[in-house]
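Quick question: what would this complex look like in 3D?
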Amino acid sequence: MTEPQPSSRLLVIDDDAAVAELLGDIAFGHGFETDIATTPAEIDRLAGIGHDLVLLDLTLGDTDGLQVMRLLRKRQPGVALILLTGADRTVLASAQRVAELSGFRVLGACSKPVDIDELGRLFEESKQAVVKDDTGAIRRLSDVAMNAIDEGQVHLLYQPKVDLASGAITGAEALVRLSVAGFETVSPGTWIPFIEATGRSRRLLNLVLERAADDRKNFAALAALGEISINLSVLDLEDLTLPDHIRSVLSASGAPAGWTLEITESAETGQLTDALDVLTRFRLLGFRLAMDDFGTGSSTFERLRIYPFNELKINRLFVHTDRGGLEHTRAMLRAAVDLGEALELKVVVEGVESDAELSLVNEVGCDAVQGYLVSRPVAADQFGLAQADWDRRRSQPV
Ligand code: C2E
Ligand code: MG
Ligand code: MG
């Protein structure tokens, strides 16, 4: 007997019943089970009852999309959204920003009339919420991830960081994966929002800290590195006891100066003072701090000025030369390097995939790189091999 297969559930919220029906039909064609809400009463009844995706029109007659977001934030924080509007693109862009800052996973923002192909693409992407395991059964990613965290089923992969002055691998970033058959390759970017929305962020962090400490003790190639980075969620920074806790878990396998804590500001920090307190204490204890994904989300100049970072990690979106061309990329990287120099921060560029990107990063004077060109993230026992492979490639004349 095969297991019953849950399909993805969609809620369409649009005050124009005809448009809502049409959108529902398109979604049905992409395999969604669809509910439709066109009045405030229907919205109140249907919003936040476990849909995988909400298609939200911003202009709704008696209410509006931002009010609906407030309701959803209470009932189903972190749910995936696609925003729609007939208003101009600047309104759509600000609404998208509100949604992101409120912790929703915003998959797309479409102007009306809707481009059916674009919407179809977004529907297909959002179906990642429902994933096949290796027995072929379809399971909801959020359930799999929450269960894995509760059961402690996670492991870490390590991606090398290359110091550009010497060309050698001197560090690594620890990246978490689910140790569940069929789900090991799913990016944490897709399931961490569920973990955070259900209050499991600290549990995840504790598992990651334990694994990183063990791996660094047990694998010589990791033990020999100058630093290993660990990702923290901004939500973790609300706990004032965190610095002492992290020190006690990590100290057995390396001095604080050999650990970098990467902070991504994907959501607005609730308590700025607490976050600042925690980050300052990390530095006083000797840990290094990196601002992750600089240039995207809320990783802003303001944060850079306030928080005591040592390192600036430039998001990979800035490195790809296809958008806006090479000159554009060079100018952005230069600006980031200048900023890093002025603030005495180490500048690390993420997502370097090609030799051309590496030369550009070298040319503008960044300090370190991380990316598929050097190595994909690898298991702890494979790190030595990845390092040897990079050393062999870089010593070969081009
Ligand atoms: P991040 O911290 O910015 O990590 C870099 C991501 O870029 C990783 O994705 C890595 O595999 C990917 N990447 C590295 N080089 C390349 C490249 O050349 N090309 C492309 N296309 N991608 C590259 P990953 O492992 O899927 O992680 C996604 C995000 O999930 C991370 O982004 C981080 O924000 C979060 N994350 C990962 N591990 C943890 C963790 O232990 N705790 C928390 N709170 N968040 C984590
Ligand atoms: Mg990171
Ligand atoms: Mg990053």
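Answer marked as accepted. The chain has two domains: 9-133, 136-395.
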